[in-house]
Amino acid sequence: MKNESNAEFKLGKAPLSADQYLDIFRKSSALLEGHFLLTSGKHSAQYMQCAQVLQYPERAAILAEGLASVFRDLEIQTVIGPATGGILVSHEVAKALGVRSLFTERENGIMRLRRGFTLSPGERVLVVEDVITTGGSVREVLSVVREFEAIPVGVGVLVDRTGGTVDFGLPQSSIIQLEIQAYEAQECPLCAQGIPAIKPGSRKL
Ligand code: ZN
Q1: For position 164, what pLDDT does the model report?
Q2: pLDDT digits (tens, 9 = 90+) for 19-40
Q3: Which of 14, 94, 173, 184 could form a disulfide with 66 if both were Cys (CB 3.0 to 4.6 A apart)?
């Protein structure tokens, strides 16, 4: 395996602050505040739906430019992300870097490159994703990249919900870090206040 060290490369800085990026999510209704019933059955005071911000191409471009600025000096040749959340992010970041964009998909549960997409040995690849909670999909994409003997040089995500607990062993960066506290219904402080819980997406918010 080729040397994956990026010690000689410096990460850049995103042009906007984390708060400014967070405002873009808020004004796009990608980050909602209230009282939510999550699919896990838990309750929360915040809800993130990244697709809401990516529906506005000019906002997607601003976020992607943030990641591109961080990784610009890593001599990236290709950006790749997992379907579906990573497709638009990969495309926008690749556009900002002036390189090509790929996406992986699951086939029978296995993450792989389809549609004739391929990577070359030694190709320098940036892996991106919209939201990471465990980092599982990103790890699967990293495996795909290494199967082709291409070189993963970094991981860029729009929203890191891991609380900084996930280390991919590569330079990594996120546009925003967001930890959403989830409560069991019987311990939910919002329920205790008698605020009705809303199932996100079930009606207009
Ligand atoms: Zn509640």
Answers
A1: 86
A2: 999 999 999 999 999 999 998 9
A3: 14
The CATH code for residues 18-192 is 3.40.50.2020
Ligand 1 centroid – CA 189 distance (Å): 6
What is the whole-number distance in angstroms between the Cα of residue 85 and the centre of ligand 1? 28
Residue 57 has pLDDT above 50, yes or no: yes
From the CA of 197, how far away is ligand 1's center (Å)? Answer: 6
Cα of 192 vs centre of ligand 1, distance in Å, is 7
Q: Show the tokens assigned to 127.
A: 């892996």
Pair type for strands 182-183 and 43-48: antiparallel
Q: What residues pair up with 124 in beta bridges, in sequence order?
A: 151
What is the CA(196)–ligand 1 centre distance, in A? 7
* Confidence (pLDDT) at 5: 53
pLDDT, position 200: 87
Expressed in angstroms and rounded, the spacing between residue 179 Cα and the centre of ligand 1 is 17
- Residue 102 pairs in a beta bridge with 80
C-alpha 193 – ligand 1 centre gap (Å)? 9
What mean pLDDT is predicted for residues 68-91? 97
| Strand ranges inside the chain, DSSP E | 31-37, 43-48, 78-82, 100-107, 110-113, 124-132, 151-160, 172-177, 182-183
Task: Please state the domain extents for the chain.
Answer: 18-192
